[in-house]
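Here is one chain, start to finish.
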Amino acid sequence: MQSSELQRITNWLIDGARSSTTPAEMVADICEHLVEAGLPLWRFGIFIRTLHPEIFGRNFIWRQGQEVEIGTVDFEILDSPEFARSPLRIVFEQGVEVRGRIDDPDSNRFPFIDDLRAEGATDYVAVPMPFLDGSIHATSWTTRHPGGFIDDHIAAIRSIVTPLARVSEIISLRRTAEMLLDTYVGNRAGARILGGQIRRGHNDTMQAAIWLSDLRGFTALSDRLPAETVVEILNRYFDCQVDAIRAHGGEVLKFMGDGLLAVFPIDEYVGDATHVCGQVLAAARDARGSVEALAHPVGEAIERFRFGVALHVGNILYGNIGGGNRLDFTCIGPAVNLAARLEKITGRLGRTIVASEGFAKVCREGWRELGEFPIAGFSKAQRVYGLAEETPRDGLPAIPPAPS
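Its structure:
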């Protein structure tokens, strides 16, 4: 190994690997520079554990002459037979280095080594990569060099892991912040917060379609079922909506008990309100079908569910609201208030989807006027619209359109 070249790579990592624009590019650059310096590297992997409710970790796999492969694994991997007999399990759990020489009979305890042997590999080493917070992550190094890695190669690998860990931790922290913000406040809000929009009163006005929904009979459901069952039902119920909302370009801002607030931003310069509201209605129909199909076994009974969603369109104030250093990135305004009031009307009308007059005028698709209703906080009664395809439920009569 060329010590001067190894030092150059180390300095490059300490400086933040600035010439690499993405993590995948950084992995490729490191491996290619190490090969140029004399390390007979054929395959390299870096495995980063993440703070994510669904993803256990991410991995980047480099093979000589190929593009870097990026993958994720969920928490089910921890219970899999493959992970139980993997050298990476030992690295993660014990924080020790694991060697797997292809010609060493002791390596047969790792079935993964058989796959490497079939591809012509001669040596493998998994090296822990500790972060400053004490968490253990991992790297793996594989060669086809006759006789495997020599002592100088292993020393070079160990020396490069520490600066690699520092850069990886910085990248990982940034990504963790992004994922946590996406998880708890949504993509658009998360991007704004990371961009520095964190002061109280730092708000923007935007036009958006508004979605407000809740689950029918939730109070009675909570009263007669164990809390753990209610949480499981709520999660499944929200899945029915969140998947539909995100698939059609919306963003979930918050969950409020069994309620859900989402927005579908409208670009006023493009003038695509009709398209956006059409997407909102498509999402509502998808969610309606998913909730109607939802069946949750409780003992010998099967629970079925219904919900109501109100759709409106208007200008909202979007940004930081709160007290002291405890802020919420959300939206407020008369348009949000009207949507909340309309959502309560869905139950009275026995409807699943209702819309304001403003929404129905923008999205002219099969609406029927249900009448005018006084709305708390608004000086004028509001016209409410329902889909012609829906019929009143719960034994409620249809309300004829208001006389013209």
